[in-house]
Design goal:
single chain; 594 residues; six-stranded mixed beta sheet; 18 helices
């Protein structure tokens, strides 16, 4: 329990630190806002004193003309004070609009930038919907906190301080009584909120789990329909919703009991104060104006204390939500640049894997003592059964993961010691299952080179044989492709990915089953464009369809995490026995017996 509470405190502290650092970027508007709120709150508390004077004059007796003259004087002063107060609160509102919105932009960018630099592994292990919810909650919590701080907490503290001072001048017991009552109630509220926090955190976790499942089912709606998973998913969502319902109701009931007890105690205090005021008036210790002032202050104080408990409860609830994003911001990036990282300089594009070893998290090694040299301008195909580590080698080359052992060199430069940006700029990857942005085709292809002109984009599309199907679309290159490119067929997405790689035109090219989604006719055209694309480049091809790699300079066969065959197609096919020869016979000559 102590460890968990300490972690919660640390997270809250870190969350507030992130907010504070972002706020410091806008000191001027923050200071103007604070000054306007403080001065406006002081005037809010002084104006009832003028009301007290008004009623004291009214009931003091004397010549009516003199009384009216004095009353008008008080009204004029009250009007001036109220006008200044109105101006101060307008300044506060406009300052708040600028200060809060700009800080929210900074926090949003900070969260976005840090999040995007997390490793490929991080995104593989987390629901997109949950991540989006956490980021949104982090920003929304800041908005809520600043609203409460500047329009509820600061005005409350300033007003109560002035009230206690003024009441103490009228009657010392009133001043001390108000102070003691406020301290007691605020302390009780604070303790309750702290106790309730752990349950609020549980509720926030339950909400995140529900959102995560919802996002997962939305992304996989096709599978739900295909496998009749509606009832299964509905029950799973229902179970999570029930867990959320129980913790949510428990926290709400807890609040209802507490606020019921608090309102009863406030009622008792209010009646007690009025009773004492009547007794003091009876002994000529209070005037009618004092009664008006006490009534005004007492009502304000009761509302402030009542609101304080609710505000603190909501503050901790929101902080509990924001702290999920704080975890993401506090989590070190899995793959980071060396502090002295230099830009990768490509001269010829040679690649060398030296004693490379790698495992996913705590699993079995996928790559072990792997050695391979790809000479500049060479086309090397990696062949092997599924799970042999071919695609993993491509990910390691791109530094989507860091090797556990050994090293990978590009033109003699250790990729762990160059910047990730410069490494990936020099490598084009066409993956097996390309995922597109929910943007236009023009934007998706231009992602290969952001500064490319429309003409260059269309040129790349023609080389990848995309132009034909794009031209038939209603909006042509401005057509939106849907979430992850769902509006396009598998072959069309593949061609868009190839067009993107053509546009990028990097000296090193990795094709991970790049033609697997194409029909025979499309594959014929794509092979022509790939042949043009591969000229003068170092190419690594990962393929199951062996017909696509017949003309590779080298074919490397991987089995049991190591290279077991290495040669060109003719050399490997002439071998007496071997995995490649067996695979070739299966694909070309039909199935054979093992």
């Amino acid at each position: 329990g102590i460890i968990k509470n300490t972690k919660m405190k640390d997270k809250t502290k870190k969350t507030l630190q992130y907010y504070w650092e972002a706020m410091k970027n806008h000191k001027t508007s923050g200071l103007v806002l604070t000054a306007a709120v403080v001065l406006g709150s002081i005037l809010d508390t002084i104006i009832p004193i003028l009301s007290k004077n008004f009623f004291d004059i009214l009931f003091d007796g004397g010549v009516k003309e003199e009384i009216v003259k004095s009353l008008i004087g008080v009204l004029v002063l009250m009007g001036v004070f109220k006008l200044v107060r109105w101006l101060l609160w307008r300044v506060a509102s406009f300052s708040m609009n600028f200060f809060e919105s700009r800080t929210m932009v900074d926090l949003s960018r900070q969260g976005f930038d840090y999040l995007q630099k997390h490793s490929f592994s991080y995104f593989s292990n987390n629901f997109p919907g949950s991540i989006v919810k956490k980021h949104k909650s982090f920003i929304n919590t800041f908005e809520f906190l600043t609203d409460q701080l500047f329009f509820e907490i600061v005005p409350g503290v300033v007003s109560v301080t002035v009230m206690i001072f003024v009441l103490g001048q009228i009657n010392v017991f009133l001043g001390w009584g108000m102070l003691g009552w406020m301290v007691l109630f605020l302390l009780i509220n604070w303790l309750f909120v702290k106790y309730k926090l752990k349950y609020d955190l549980q509720r926030s976790e339950a909400e995140t789990a529900t959102s995560g499942l919802l996002a997962d089912t939305v992304s996989n709606n096709f599978n739900i329909k295909l496998f009749n998973g509606y009832i299964y998913e509905s029950e799973a969502y229902g179970n999570l919703s029930e867990v959320l319902h129980k913790i949510r109701k428990f926290t709400w009931d807890m609040g209802a009991v507490f606020y019921g007890a608090q309102s009863f105690l406030m009622l008792v205090f209010e009646i007690l104060i009025y009773y004492l005021a009547v007794r003091w008036w009876q002994r000529d210790l209070l005037t009618v104006g004092d009664f008006v002032l006490i009534q005004s202050y007492l009502f304000s104080a009761v509302m402030m204390v009542w609101d304080f408990g609710r505000i603190m409860t909501r503050v901790y609830e929101r902080l509990a939500e924001a702290e999920e994003m704080t975890e993401i911001l506090s989590l070190p990036h899995g793959v980071v640049d060396n502090p002295k990282a230099k830009k990768l300089k490509i001269k010829s594009g040679g690649i060398r894997f030296e004693e490379v070893g790698f495992r996913y998290e705590e699993g079995e090694k996928v790559v072990k003592d792997f050695n391979l040299e790809v000479k500049p301008g060479q086309m090397v195909a990696l062949v092997g059964l599924s799970g042999s580590g071919k695609s993993t080698l491509a990910k390691l080359l791109l530094r989507l993961y860091d090797v556990d052992e050994g090293r990978i060199l590009v033109d003699g430069q250790n990729i762990a010691k160059v910047s990730q940006e410069s490494l990936r700029k020099n490598i084009s990857l066409v993956p097996q299952d390309p995922i597109l942005f929910h943007r236009s085709l023009m934007e998706n292809i231009r992602y290969g080179r952001f500064e490319a002109s429309d003409k260059e984009v269309i040129g790349a599309a023609k080389l990848a044989y995309c132009d034909g199907f794009i031209s038939k679309l209603k909006d042509g290159y401005q057509s939106m492709v849907g979430d992850r490119g769902i509006k396009l067929s598998g072959g069309e997405r593949q061609r868009v990915a190839i067009a993107r790689a053509i546009l990028k035109n990097s000296p090193i090219l990795v094709l991970d089953e790049a033609t697997s989604s194409l029909d025979s006719e499309s594959e014929k055209y794509i092979q022509k464009s790939l042949n043009n694309l591969m000229k003068g480049k170092t190419v690594i091809v990962i393929a199951h369809r062996l017909s696509t790699i017949k003309r590779a300079d080298r074919i490397v066969v991987i089995s049991d995490k190591k290279i077991v065959e290495d040669g060109n197609h003719n050399q490997l096919i002439k071998a007496k026995s071997g995995i490649y020869k067996k695979l070739w016979k299966i694909q070309v000559g039909g199935f054979i017996k093992y």
